Structure formats: C-alpha cells, structure tokens
Amino acid sequence: MVRARFARHLLHLARLIADARPRAITLVSFARAGTPVGVLLGRILRRFFERPTRHYSISIIRDRGIDENALRFILDRHPADSVVFVDGWTGKGVIARELRKSVTSFNEAHGVGLDPGLFAVADLSGAAACAATTDAYLIPSAVLGCTISGLVSRSILNHDVAGPSDFHACVFYEGLRGADLSRWFVDELMRDVGQAASLPSAQADRKPAAKNGERSTAFLRSVMEQFKIRNVNLIKPGIGEATRVLLRRVPDLLLLRDPLLPDVAHLRLLALAKNVPIRVDPALPYLATALIKEIDG
Predict the structure, then answer these.
(1) How many CA atoms lie within 13 A of 218 on its CB side?
(2) Based on the domain organization, do 192 and 244 belong to the same domain?
(3) Would you say 122 and 135 are in contact if contact means Cβ atoms under 8 Å apart?
(4) CA-CA 20 to 30 A from 278: which of 124, 188, 202, 270?
(5) What are phi and psi of 54, to 5 degrees?
(6) Is the whole-model pTM more than 0.85?
(7) Are residues 11 and 100 in the same domain?
C-alpha cells in the first residue's frame, strides 16, 4: 500500500535528519510538492524524536535558483547549521543540482555555511545527499496539487509580481478553500506513521547513490539519442514524474519496464485515455518514463 510505504520512508528520513542535526532543526522544503513532506517531517521529528523543529517552505526554480530573500529571512531567525533542505523525490536530479549550485553561491556571497545537500524521501537519480529509499513509486504530493499543499500554486518569478526584495510569488486559490484537504492529508499520514513507528525499524536502503547517478546519466543520454530528443527536460523518469506528464503536459510516449505491475496501472489507464503510445522495455532502469511532445515554435 502506497501510503504505508510513504509513512515508513518519512519515518526513516526523519531519523536520518535527526542523526544529521544534533540540536534544533529547521526544515526548508520546496513548494509546492515538497510542502506536505516538510510538514509531515516536522510533526514526526517533534512527536517521535522529541526534537524542536521549525518548518518553512520556499521556492526554487530550475535555471533561476533558490529564493534568496526567503533564505535570508530564515537565517535571521535560525542558525545555518540547523537548516535541512527537504523534498519528496528526485527525478533527473535537476532540483538537487540547482540547490547545490544556488546555496554554494549564497554561502560564498554571504559568508554563511548552509549545507547544500538535499534530503529526499525517494532518490531515483542519486542526486540527493541523503534519502530514505532509491525506489520509485507515486508519492501523493507529486500529483495532488494545491488541495493538499496549502492551496498555493507553483512558484512564480517575474517582475510583474515579485520585486527584488520580495519572496518568489504564488497564487492562493481562495475559491478552492471548500475542497482543501491539506490538514486532512497530513493527519491521515500521521496515523500511518504512528503504525510504522510501532514496527521494527527496516533496514536502510544501501544502494550506492553514485551508481544511481551514473545510471541516470547514461539512461538520459540513451533516450535522447534513441528518440532524437534535443532537450533533456522533455524526459521525465520515474512513476511520479511520468504521472505528472500524463495529467498536466502533452505526452508523446510512455515507457514501461513491466506493464503488469500494480504501481503503473494508473499510467496505462491515463495513456489509454489520452491515446499516448506505450513502449515496453524490460531493461528500463526506472519502472516508468514519460516523454513530453516537443512543440516547435
């Protein structure tokens, strides 16, 4: 069951964070899919590890960087060595690399020592500094959007809405308040975490992250060559990323390792509904990968 697996991995990631930060903890998650992950980790650290924990969710945007105004706001209130950057998963590792680049630059500019490593629930690409698992599955916040993430949109960064001294912006969906399940989602998952906490600790995932990184790089290169793809951002590996493509983008092709696995059943249904061709490849390093249609213009 996905929610039980997610609960176990949240508990394990919280344990890793507690080990890495011996004093107070300041969680910084990435809005919006990482927001409920940060909220849950904060609750788990306070309840099961008795650690004082604060949580902030801020913006990071591919090729634009992290919200430095938000970082300064946090550092005015908390020591740099308490900060832990958290997210739900890594796909190709783009955000993990953007984080490392942005925070390293921020540290040099401001003379601080933020740890630029990402702590993720699931690290498919080997790009995270620490993760609960390298397995790919559908983490709920990957696809459920604003109604479990505090009714906010994805980050917005343009001069019309965000000035030099502002945080990155977002839209607040007031009209969806009646459908908001953000607190319900966290409360339900905490019940599952409570059940997981009563079980013996599972063996930590020991798959070498470096090999995952090498595998990811080789796979992306192979797919770009095979399908004549010019932009690597059109390749979305992993079940979560593939689901997002089929729900929100213009998909071109769905690659599956094994179409009979329960974890990919919803992908087959979505592909069928959108007339997206499916190609089965038993050697696929991920359970699923979606390719976005390249639109000229």
Answers:
(1) 10
(2) no
(3) yes
(4) 124
(5) -115, 150
(6) yes
(7) yes
